[in-house]
Amino acid sequence: MKHIKQVLIAILLLTAFLPVQGRDMSKKATVDVKEILWGHIKDSYEWHITDLGTEDNLTPIIIHLPIIVHTTTGWHVFSSSEFSEERDKNGDRPGPHNLVIKNGEDATNPNLIVEKVNGKELRPIDISITKTVCTLFIDAIVLLLVILIPARWCKKHKPQDKAPKGFTGLMHMFIMSVYDEVLKPTLGEEAPKYAPWLLTCFFFIFCANLMGLVPFPPGGGNLTGNITCTFFLGVSTFLIVNFTGSKEYWKEILWPDVPLWMKFPIPLMPFIELFGIFTKPLALIIRLFANMFAGHAIALSFCAIMFIMFSFADNAIVNYAAGSGMSVIAISLSVFMMLLEILVSYIQALVFTMLSAVFISQAHVKKEKTE
Q1: Which of 26, 110, 171, 276 could form a Cys-Cys staple with 150, CB 3.0–4.6 A?
Q2: Would you say 64 and 98 are in contact if contact means Cβ atoms under 8 Å apart?
Q3: 113 has which bridge partners?
Q4: Between the CA of residue 367 and those of 96, 244, 247, 253, what are the distances in Å?
Q5: Cα separation of 100 and 111, whole Å?
Q6: What is the structure's pLDDT at 316?
Q7: Contacts of 325 (CB under 8 A, 6+ apart)
């Protein structure tokens, strides 16, 4: 333990000097924190990894993704590298087939592909493989491998055989802990029926959260911090809850056991109950999205602090002293946030699964028998 502490201290001290390498301390640079944050969080048509070189001669390392659009001239498939890095007077990036990627500050269609026809901007049918879509495919492949490896072991062994070890044993522990401690107590006899969906939700969210913490491809994509992804998961649970709901569930919503004046002529209680149908999945969507979005933003903000401190003053010595001291603090806080994010990744996956199970259970309420 003593040696581990010494190594960590040495790494922290070393990182205090890393940000100044290759940089002229006599120059006051500006740090665009907004661009750093949104560059990681927002979706894009290419995957920017890093920049290499000196401050005056940076070479971006980018993974170009396929563009698939249907314009007024038909379908077009090409690489995002065909869009120019040089922006026009409007800040847009021109490309082939009269297409441009709009300026991110534009009020209409920011960072999206539009087609310019006779001075007008038209949105084509856009099914391009963006950074978020690419991340989704990668996470899906990882999830399949994570699940199929234990499934293959289960297919070859019988229930009375010795418990597996290693990765397969770890996955068994996760699966059985979620199933035995969350699904069975909530759904009872119906747990096996809805376990495939709920376990898929848990492992997909958990896998996507962890992959988002990896700072380099194939990780680094903020999938669960994208409202579209969490919206799909929430809507799927919404459909399962309401399409499998019992008659008593719908009776309690449309004609609850309350005084008649609360139902007729003004349907006050039915309106409140119907409103509650939509607030439940909305809570799932917003909770997951907001927590993962905020976690990434905070971690990146801590990293940006040390770069700001290296360029906040006109005096190079002051910048160096402030930046070096802040680097130790910022990196320590960033490491703490990353460890906290690992815990939050598990908690958010568990909370989404647990609440989905609770909502399904509430929709399967049965009429109480009176003696």
Answers
A1: 171
A2: no
A3: 101
A4: 63, 16, 9, 14
A5: 9
A6: 63
A7: 16, 309
